[in-house]
Amino acid sequence: MKLSKISSNSTVELALWRGRDLLSLRNIAPRLTLMDLLGASASLRNDLEQRLNRAHAEDLLDPTQLNFLPPLPENCKILCAGLNYQSHATEVSAPPAEYPNFFIRYEDTLVGHGQALRIPSNSQELDYEGELAVVIGKTCFGPMNDAQALDCVSGYTIFNDASVRDFQFRASQWTLGKNFPATGGCGPVMVSADELPMGAKGLALHTLIDGTVMQTGNTADLIFNVASLIRALAAVTPLRCGDLIITGTPAGVGFTRNPPRFLRAGEHCEIRIEGIGSLINPVTAN
């Protein structure tokens, strides 16, 4: 299953992809919510597949005429792992980690595919970070093994954890630099876990600015894999349907370059993840 959350004429709706076709669920399954889809059972998916087989031409959508929203429910938790690619930890000379390093990002800092990332008026250091995001499909809390942890995953999407570096590095905690409005991107699709390798392992990731590759990585390079991140968080806080775990970024971010390379107004930042697709955001200045 490959789903998108879209808006057209101020109406928010859900849509599913079948190959290159995007089908509105407005008539096919009008009562289904995003939470229903994220936590969908096998029987619900089978029923939905049958309904899609009966779709009409009027259910087809033109992606070029839509606004893509982050494929998230409202009021979800967004929990981010920092320094979780070995290549990135090496480039910043971080000591070996015994435990994942988490910080919080807020839903209202995000924009969808095609929407603009905004450079804050009080900083010129907006940096790109291409990342894989894990979408939780059911509540998990307490001790569990890897298989149980991965059973809680609904799917995966693409995330740009763009960071305002001068604010991020003012203190040991990174919250300020991660939560300016419209500084993070998410989407445009959520791909269900059964369509990707177990734990989304071995997926190529690239970040590009105006077509020039800035980051090249692979999820096999994660220091703490998807199951480990879920287990670490679920030991502390209940993870619920729709919550996101952001898994970290590989080497090549802008602040580590000489000279530093931050995002500039008029550019386009693209993140590609194998098996999921591309998240593209233009960059503007406030």
* Overall pLDDT: 96
Rg to the nearest angstrom?
18 Å
Strand content: 25-35%
SSE class: alpha+beta
When the domains are counted, the total is 2
Uncertain stretches: none
Q: What is the total tally of β strands?
A: 20
Quote the distance from N terminus to C terminus. Answer: 37 Å
Helical fraction: 10-25%
Q: Which terms would index this structure?
A:
286 residues; alpha+beta; Fumarylacetoacetate hydrolase, domain 2; 2 domains; 13-stranded mixed β-sheet; 5-stranded mixed β-sheet; globular
Write the SSE topology.
Elements: E1 2-8, E2 11-18, E3 21-24, H1 34-38, H2 42-53, E4 60-61, E5 67-69, E6 78-82, H3 86-91, E7 101-105, E8 110-111, E9 117-119, E10 126-127, E11 130-136, H4 146-150, E12 153-160, E13 163-164, H5 165-168, H6 175-178, E14 184-186, E15 190-192, E16 204-209, E17 212-218, H7 226-234, E18 244-246, E19 268-273, E20 277-285
Parallel strand pairs: 6-18, 8-14, 9-20
Antiparallel strand pairs: 1-2, 1-5, 1-15, 2-3, 3-4, 6-7, 10-13, 11-12, 11-18, 12-14, 12-15, 16-17, 16-19, 19-20
Q: Mind explaining what this structure looks like?
A:
- GO terms for molecular function: hydrolase activity.
- Keywords: Hydrolase, Metal-binding.
- This is Fumarylacetoacetate hydrolase family protein.
- This protein is an alpha+beta fold.
- It has two domains: 2-67, no CATH class; 70-285, Fumarylacetoacetase-like, C-terminal domain (Fumarylacetoacetate hydrolase, domain 2, Alpha-Beta Complex).
- 16% of the residues lie in helices and 33% in strands.
- It has seven helices and 20 strands.
- Strands 1, 2, 3, 4, 5, 6, 7, 8, 11, 12, 14, 15 and 18 form a 13-stranded mixed beta sheet that branches.
- The protein is globular, with a radius of gyration of 18 Å.
- The relative contact order is 0.20.
